[in-house]
Amino acid sequence: MAEAYDVIVIGGGAAGLMCALTAGQRGRRVLVVEHANRVGKKILMSGGGRCNFTNTGTTPANFLSANPHYCKSALARYTPADFIELVERHRIAYHEKELGQLFCDVSSKLIVKMLLDECADAGVRVETSCSVERVLHGEGEAPFRLHTARGAFAAPRLVIATGALSIPSLGATGFGYELARQFGHSVLPTRAGLVPLTLSGKHQERLADLSGVALPVTARCNGRSFSNQMLITHRGVSGPAILQISSYWQPGDDLRLDLLPGHEAIAWLRAQQLERPAAELKTVLADAMPKRFAQRLCELWLSNKPMKQYTAPELKQLAATLQDWPLTASGTEGYRTAEVTLGGVDTDELSSSTMESRRVPGLHFVGEVVDVTGWLGGYNFQWAWASGHAAGMAV
């Protein structure tokens, strides 16, 4: 005989726990089933263990989706201020790092504890190490039936909060996509997002020994640009600017870097020529970027000579190269290190206000399994809270 609940949530991550506690607070009998040995593993590792739990500047423009309007309703109804109020009520100290990114002062464990305490207060049952073997859909008052490692459960409402494919070492799988297809939903093509880019051949050879060098850049691709740090790695490039642009880049796309962000390159070079005519270009550039990187640029991409020897057209060409430096990436590091998964359950088949399936009444999808992907910097957690809350208010 299956144990009956009002709502069953598959997945004990950010979106699943938010959905569960919201529904529980509304008097629903809620069960969360999590296949891993603990809930919130992605929360725990995020932000270097400090959890970048939201971004105060969150808008729909910070998200990628085949339907850019889909996220608007949920984000408007559960805002960063709403989550901050919850964090403050639990007396969790936090700080703003940069660009609206909020982090815990002490540990991401406090965010998981907060969510679990809220679930406990709302009477939510959370089962870990509980893998789902089968999900059936039939008739009657509790049409969704789950066969799990902990027995059989049934409910009239089922929420898929399984996450996606990024960071399989934390237990990420494509199970949510399998369930979506089982219930007749389309799943848009997935790929790794917020992920380091790899270089190959001569492009990698030219930079590999500079691994560990970081510099500010503006990365541009497909009409998008992000200004932040780039980190050179053994296999390619990483750092916030690269992670951000990776969500907009695919193999073969043109990727350009401004190596002098914040400067009008030609004006800066002309000023350097006047002030330091005897200084070589590599010495001058070393004031604006790491010395080793400046030297490598001058060895392979730029001519190096005293500033006074550059003609006006040559300075113009230098400026053009420095502000539009081509970076030929060959691929990404993949789901292994990706912070998010692009693509997912097609939002055209879901209600934007309740996250409910338009195909199967009582079935909801929240969080990363859905085709909504945020930028780096707390946006994906805000989508988890907002989508989880939207479903939690509807189930």
UniProtKB/TrEMBL annotation:
Keywords: FAD, Flavoprotein. Signal peptide: none annotated. Residues 6-393 form the RsdA/BaiN/AoA(So)-like Rossmann fold-like domain. Residues 191-340 form the RsdA/BaiN/AoA(So)-like insert domain. InterPro entries: BaiN-like, BaiN-like_dom_sf, FAD/NAD-bd_sf, RsdA/BaiN/AoA(So)-like_dom, RsdA/BaiN/AoA(So)_Rossmann. Its cofactor is FAD. It holds the Pfam family HI0933_like_1st. It comes from the Bacteria. This is NAD(P)/FAD-dependent oxidoreductase.
